[in-house]
Amino acid sequence: MSVTVRFAPSPTGNIHIGNVRTALFNWLFALKHDGKFILRFDDTDGARSKREYAEQIASDLEWLGVRPHRVEYQSKRTEAYDAAVERLKKAGLLYPCYDTPEELERRRRIRLSRRLPPVYGREALKLTEAQRSAFEAEGHKPHWRFLLPNFDVDPFATRRTEIHWDDVVRGPQTVDLASMSDPVLVREDGSYLYTLPSVVDDIDMGVTHVIRGDDHVTNTGAQVALFEALGANAPAFGHHNLLTTTTGEGLSKRSGALSIKALREAGYEPAAVAALAVLIGTSENVAPSASIEVMAETFRPSSSSKSAAKFDPTELDLLNRQIVHQLPFEEVSERLKAAGVNVDDPRAGQFWNVIRANIEKVRQAGDWWPIITDGPARDIVLDGDDLDYARTAFSLLPEGDVDASTWSAWTSAVKEKTGRKGRALFMPLRIALTGRSSGPEIADLLPLLGREGIAARRP
């Protein structure tokens, strides 16, 4: 069977790493099975959905290596949803309700006080035509509920009705429809809640697998019933564990620090973000892959734990360093140029090979390029005995070409002349040459500076 999956974000804000976990689970599943991936914007909320958010989501996914085979907008498919609503109404499976939020809350509390599950009691089914007409005449607009098939004849005499599925992530699952309220599919203003458009779209677009967060497990029972009510077979379902903050709080679009846009702008590598988004909270080692295609080869949805996974930004920093330290010059040259590195300089390639092991993000190389080409930074200034020592040491720079062996020969001569050793020997020279107390190996930096560049840094 061919595989078709979908990712259906709401363009009401920037997606965060938790959203991307779902997108990547679907993308990797599609790659692994040579299937199709649909990017489907849930933009039926016209007041909150913005075109700029949809464009940013598409851009963020492309940055991560997700390239949809098809892009859809639910706002353009209202005719299909209208037709489904009429079909359900004619079948007697969608009924109008005039209950106010206050009435619903009062009934919920009563049921809880009686130790009954707080499900909707289908009071609206008891309304006569005259009562409905009276509500309409008073200006009340109904919301519409889907009648779950959890009874034999009498909808007020529910019975245990189990929905079973073999979850792609969690294995065998069961939901009892008798433990659920009839879901609202249409609001008072005629707009649709997520469930109806989602099911209609999954049917029309041939979605075979729905992979999403495990906060939707219970919803699956009602959705399976809705698929069947519309004459379709339900797709396979998979529910992965969610990501939380390190304190256990759920991620939200209001927390902009973990949005993909913010992580991109902070200089993180897409491979680092993808690896952590997918592999954290699984039985797999959290390590970057050479490509998204390579990650797909070993991707196993079932490796996901059943408990929430905590996203720790320090882990992202660690992954990012690992990736940056392996990036070849050719792959980062454009970004180095944007960071201020003259990539046409003959030393640029060697500079990158030297500096990459000492930075966390590519753009940080831009901080070191002026130190090589213009002179030391002013982070630390030598004084006192260290200043006198450095002046003496510079006079002992070996003759000849500056190469990988120069530093060893130079420090040997300085040690013999001054008697200094260890940190007291090396640190003043590092500060004189770079203006910093840490960084790349000086032995590697000297050939980049050259004899004239070194001599010009004599304090």
From TrEMBL:
A motif ('HIGH' region) lies at residues 9-19. GO terms for biological process: glutamyl-tRNA aminoacylation. InterPro entries: aa-tRNA-synth_I_cd-bd, aa-tRNA-synth_I_codon-bd_sub2, aa-tRNA-synth_I_CS, aa_tRNA-synth_I_cd-bd_sf, Glu-tRNA-ligase_bac/mito, Glu/Gln-tRNA-synth, Glu/Gln-tRNA-synth_Ib_cat-dom, GluQ/Sye. ATP binds at K253. GO terms for cellular component: cytoplasm. It holds the Pfam family tRNA-synt_1c. A motif ('KMSKS' region) lies at residues 250-254. Keywords: Aminoacyl-tRNA synthetase, ATP-binding, Cytoplasm, Ligase, Nucleotide-binding, Protein biosynthesis. Residues 401-457 form the Aminoacyl-tRNA synthetase class I anticodon-binding domain. It is an enzyme of class 6 (ligase). Residues 3-317 form the Glutamyl/glutaminyl-tRNA synthetase class Ib catalytic domain. Its main location: cytoplasm. It comes from the Bacteria. The keyword ATP-binding applies. Coiled coil: none annotated. One of its GO terms (molecular function) is tRNA binding. It catalyses: tRNA(Glu) + L-glutamate + ATP = L-glutamyl-tRNA(Glu) + AMP + diphosphate. Its EC number is 6.1.1.17. Belongs to the class-I aminoacyl-tRNA synthetase family. Glutamate--tRNA ligase type 1 subfamily. Catalyzes the attachment of glutamate to tRNA(Glu) in a two-step reaction: glutamate is first activated by ATP to form Glu-AMP and then transferred to the acceptor end of tRNA(Glu). Monomer. This is Glutamate--tRNA ligase.
